[in-house]
Amino acid sequence: MTTTNSIASILERHNFTDLLARLTTLDDNQRQLMIGVLGEFSSGKSTLINAMLGKKLLPALVKPTTARITEIYPIKGQEKQEFYLRDSSGNLRPVSALDFDDALLTTGSDVAIVKTAPNELMHDGYCIVDTPGLASLEDTHTDITFGYLPFIDGAIVCQDINKGGMTASLKSFLEKPEVRPFIGRIAFFLTLSDSKPPSAIADIRKHYCTELAEFLVRIGVEVEVLDERVLAVSSKAILDGQASTENIAKIIQDTFVNPRQQIVADRITVEQRRIAGEAISRLHMMRDNLILDRAKYAERRSEINDELQRLEMDKKRVKRILDEMHPALKEIVSSQLIPLKLLLPKQSTSEMSATFTAVSADLQIQVSALIKKRLGGDGEIQVQVNESQLQAALSKLDGFIDMGKTVGTAALAMALAAHGVPPQVLGTLPEAEPDLLEATDVADGVMVASVVNMSKGSRLGDVIRQVNPIEWAGNFASRHFKEKEISQEINRLIAAVTNSIQDQLSEYTAMQIFDPAEKALMSAKIQLDGLISEEKQEDTTLATKRVEVANDILTLSIS
Questions:
Q1: Domain identity same for 246 and 364
Q2: What is the pLDDT of residues 44-78, one digit of tens each?
Q3: Using H for helix, E for strand and C for coil, what is the string for 13-37?
Q4: Is 297 inside any structural domain?
Q5: In angstroms, how far is CA 257 from the centroid of its own chain?
Q6: How many domains, the chain?
Q7: Which residues pair with 83 in a beta bridge?
């Protein structure tokens, strides 16, 4: 059998503090034992209690009167009777004798309380409980009585002697599981015996004892000296001073007072089992709830996986946009720089610088608009058009003016020498580095020389000779060279500017989009791993807890 300490350990482990508090008070030997006075309505219960008190305290009528539980406490040292009503929270409220009588005649949840002095029939340490009739005209009265049975340690069962043998309600009462624990501590009183002659009383009592014995055997209950537990009484005669209370005192002494120690032990056992039963109910509910909420984890896993998928899709989307933006960027740059092929050859150095500044600003506006449109955002995403790159190109183009003239003149000289021009003429031409000359440059010079040769002896030739043909040919070749080099440099510049912007975009997306996305992906994967680990750990913990609870249920079940 489970010990009180074992039960206490289980209650403490599961934090059942209310049950633990009840368990720790069970060993109080000073506790009040509850003796219920039971019977059908108008069976003389209240009159018997009045006889035991020695005064008419409780109302006694021919119709059902007691409408609520009444507890009478004989207390050593109590000089006068006091009346209270106790609510469901255990609070006592003092009431007058008149209010007390009114309460007994009305149905209510409050329990009526009487504190009185003890006597030979009312012993200190025992509470006499008056209950509504077992076959009351009001079902609620019967419910109140039966609901009180688990708290009763013994009982006095009253039956009107005029009904002869055992009534159907008495048999039904004795068969109840709640009665079985104290059925060996019941005194049976045949009341209203003053209405029968002594010989009839003896016959009725004998028949009652026989029938009672046979009934108890039939329901499997054995009661020793049953004959001594049945008493015919006249409460009216006792109250009128015409009958002795000696027999009542003896049966109370034998049934309740002498076996007090055993009754207390039995009560402790009953209460211990009741507490264990309540704990078992709670533990069953607890075990049923110790189930892993897999839906919760599934939902969180789904959320994390959705986030992972979204991040991966965002990365792919941005990469795709960047790849798709390259032609658009090149188109923007080209639209700004290609017109310079025709414009720059006609401009001075200062005009070219102003043109590049304007182009840089326009590029910035158009590229930023494109980025905002393709990548979204709040418009703060910007790239810098490398103006120094444009200025370097400007300086290079500016040099093409003199370089073109030098290269063109040198190429012309080489061509004229090949056609027999006197050395004294060639000596006046500026020197040019041979490695600066290309086949196309020489071809240009040859073309100019051919024009000069074909003009000899003509009016055009005379004009050419008068205006210094070498300088004229050099200027012609210079312009042609400058236009060609500007076109090539613009093409190189378009590629360079486009690649520069693309590089800036790649760097921006790496820092502002891909790096945070990778961190978010890593964080999500860590969360997913942690979630899986947490789920496994919780599942293991719950399984262990279920085993512990099952063992505790088993332990309490054998108490």
A1: no
A2: 888 999 999 988 887 764 455 556 789 999 999 99
A3: HCCCHHHHHHHHCCCCCCCCEEEEE
A4: no
A5: 57
A6: 2
A7: 114
CA separation for the pair 61, 427 (Å, rounded)? 159
The pLDDT tens digits for 429-470 are: 444 444 444 444 444 444 444 544 544 444 444 444 444 444
**Cα 140 from Cα 44, distance rounded (Å):** 20
Pair 261, 410 in one domain: no
**Packing angle, helices 4-13 and 260-289, rounded to 10:** 30
Q: What is the pTM of this model?
A: 0.57
Q: Return the beta strands (E) in 161-302 as ranges.
A: 186-191, 230-232
Chain center to CA of 372: 41
CATH of residue 104's domain is 3.40.50.300
Please indicate, yes or no, if residue 157 is contained in any of the structural domains. yes
Backbone conformation region of residue 344, classed left if phi is above 0, alpha if psi is from -120 to 50, else beta: alpha
For residues 224 and 105, membership in a common domain is answered with: yes
- Euclidean distance between CA atoms 292 and 540, whole angstroms: 9
Whether residues 226 and 356 fall in one domain: no
Residues in the chain: 559
DSSP for 273-308, written as a single string: HHHHHHHHHHHHHHHHH----HHHHHHHHHHHHHHH
Q: Return d(Cα 87, Cα 112) in angstroms, integer.
A: 9
Residue 451, token pair as written in the block: 């024009």
Tokens of residue 269, six digits: 């056992």
For tokens 């994390």, name the residue. 304
Q: Please report whether residue 127 resides in a domain.
A: yes
Domain boundary among 226, 247, 270: 270
pLDDT in tens, 103-143: 887 877 889 999 999 999 999 999 999 888 776 655 666 77
- Whether 264 and 308 map to the same domain: the answer is no
* Domain housing 131: 32-270
Between the CA atoms of 90, 96, 99 and 101, what dihedral angle is there, to the nearest 10 degrees? 90
Asked if residues 19 and 4 have their Cβ atoms less than 8 Å apart, the reply is no
Residue 65 CB coordination number (10 Å) = 19
92-94 and 82-86 beta bridge pairing: antiparallel
Query: What are the beta bridge partners of residue 92?
Result: 86
- Rounded Cα distance, 531 and 519, in Å: 18
- Domain identity same for 439 and 516: yes
- Alpha-carbon span 544 to 553, nearest angstrom: 14
